[in-house]
Amino acid sequence: MIETTRTVSTLRSWVKTCRQSGKRIALVPTMGALHEGHLTLVDLARRHADEVAVSLFVNPTQFAPGEDLDRYPRDEQGDRAKLDARGVSMLWAPTPDEMYPDGFSTTVSLDGPALGLETDHRPHFFGGVATVVTKLLLQVLPDVAVFGEKDYQQLQVISRLTRDLDIPTQIIGGSTIREPDGLAMSSRNAYLSKEERQVAPVLNITLKAAGRAALAGDDPRTTETKAISQLLAAGFARIDYVAIRHAESLAPLTSADIKAGQPMRVLGAGVLGKTRLIDNLDPRSA
Amino acid sequence: MIETTRTVSTLRSWVKTCRQSGKRIALVPTMGALHEGHLTLVDLARRHADEVAVSLFVNPTQFAPGEDLDRYPRDEQGDRAKLDARGVSMLWAPTPDEMYPDGFSTTVSLDGPALGLETDHRPHFFGGVATVVTKLLLQVLPDVAVFGEKDYQQLQVISRLTRDLDIPTQIIGGSTIREPDGLAMSSRNAYLSKEERQVAPVLNITLKAAGRAALAGDDPRTTETKAISQLLAAGFARIDYVAIRHAESLAPLTSADIKAGQPMRVLGAGVLGKTRLIDNLDPRSA
């Protein structure tokens, strides 16, 4: 039966008990509103550890004013039932006050993989994510932590900060789970109208096509521009970026880099109706 | 016999061995050039743990260009002998490349106690300190870590970041060790000429007098200004600050705050010849 805790001290008692019986621990950080994408990360975590903890915290510091903090979907009871059915031992659901007590003064920030892409459009985002993920990792000190590849830049940022700060946890990326038509699963898909839902898969289709074109030798910058036009023509209200990048540093790749076999990722983000969607893929395996 | 290690992986093997035999670990971070002040911190650390590790790392990121990074005193062999005689088990002496490998991208920063005072005069300082101390704490994951009260603002910054990031280590402050004439021991005292060495104790004497005046009801801001004049008259080339502050938040105190018994600290920093000296004290116990 899944246990729920809301304080760091009770969480640490649970961790201590696990450690005393020699168990390996995995952490899957989430903001709740769990769908099959999250549950697949849980399954991946179980393959690497004896006990799985899932954190549920809608982190206010990674939302800018005017973003969807207040309307972000919340369903703790439903989430708990799903996690229990998947064999999760611990739901770590702290309050904002437990995470950010009076006088809280510390920020973890990055350049490197945190520069550009999401940062250009959500400048607060990775500052908030890097700080809260550092806290979650240090609260649990898990052997492994699993993050979805759907938030690919976030995964690279977290991998980098974990190495840079010597956090003794292995970061594992879990593949993006998709609807049958290719749309990446996301809690925000619930915001889409019926008409928008029909347009949404074009993001994945367009990123795939851009990746294929770049692999075939087309200029990456021209390919990105063309993809943006296609997405706008398909009905997206705004495209923040389509970007053909190095898979780890996220630096832009040239045709020569791609020809030389550099690790590659195609990333895209845009707004459909009022909902911001992101996706990414490795065109060599997509 | 003291062991020396230069890689995180060998350090962690040592930590693991200690943990397997149920030993408590203390860490004393230093930049080397050890004097009796450091060794007193080591003795304090031994009272809280079974094994003491001392780190020796002259952290380049907390020196600004033009500061004394290159001429900062270094004597690893002498330091090791002193620590061995004091019963230290592990000297953790990483290279800059081990601490900051290629692609390093992460910074830990603070507002709160990091605002003002040292930050006004060494803007890079606490960014460098907060990041390297986070790394050292996470490399060793000690039960306790000991820092000198001589760098009082640094101690408050480290206490704050340790709580904020949920680092599972207790931070302990060790009293400042002084020469018979009251000068706080410091590696930088070695830079002082014979004449400067005679003037140096005036810093401590002046801070004490300022604290007494503020406790007696004198206005703190006026008292600070008077103390600065006295230090300049005594021969200091520059005074960065004399400050009467809350002992934890380091916010300025009013006469009413002091009368109400708020925790208090008097801090000062200035340049004598070419050497920057700092000191601080609790006027209620000095």
Give a written overview of the molecule.
Two copies of one chain form a homodimer. Chain A is of the alpha/beta class and 286 residues long. Chain A has two domains: 3-174, Rossmann fold, CATH 3.40.50; 187-281, Pantoate--beta-alanine Ligase, Chain: A,domain 2, CATH 3.30.1300. The first copy, chain A, has helices at 8-20, 36-46, 76-85, 96-99, 118-121, 125-140, 152-164, 194-199, 202-215, 220-234, 255-259; strands at residues 3-5, 25-30, 51-56, 90-92, 106-110, 144-148, 170-174, 238-246, 264-272, 275-281. Chain A has a six-stranded parallel beta sheet with strand order 1-4-3-2-6-7, sandwiched between helices. In chain A, strands 8-9-10 form a three-stranded antiparallel beta sheet. The first copy, chain A, is globular, with a radius of gyration of 19 Å. The two termini of chain A are 38 Å apart. Chain A binds chain B through residues 8, 12, 101, 103-114, 130-131, 134-135, 138-139, 141, 160-161, 163-168, 249, and chain B through 8, 12, 101, 103-114, 130-131, 134-135, 138-139, 141, 160-161, 163-168, 249.
Number of separate domains of chain A? 2
Number of helical regions of chain A: 11
SSE string of chain A, helix = H, strand = E? EHEHEHEHEHHEHEHHHEHEE
Give the distance, in angstroms, between the N- and C-terminal Cα atoms of chain A: 38 Å
Which protein chains make the most extensive interface, counting residues with beta carbons within 8 Å of the other chain's beta carbons?
A-B, 31 and 31 residues
- Per DSSP E runs of 2 or more residues, the count of β-strands of chain A stands at 10
CATH homology superfamily name of the largest domain in chain A: HUPs
Estimated share of beta-strand residues of chain A = 15-25%
- The general outline of chain A is globular
Strand order of the largest sheet of chain A: 1-4-3-2-6-7
At CATH level 3, the topology of the largest domain in chain A is: Rossmann fold
Oligomer: homodimer
The CATH class of the largest domain in chain A is Alpha Beta
Whole-angstrom Rg of chain A: 19 Å
The CATH architecture classification of the largest domain in chain A is 3-Layer(aba) Sandwich
Mean pLDDT of chain A: 95
How does the major sheet of chain A shape up?
6 strands, parallel
Which structural class should the secondary elements of chain A be placed in?
alpha/beta
Poorly predicted runs of 5 or more residues of chain A? none
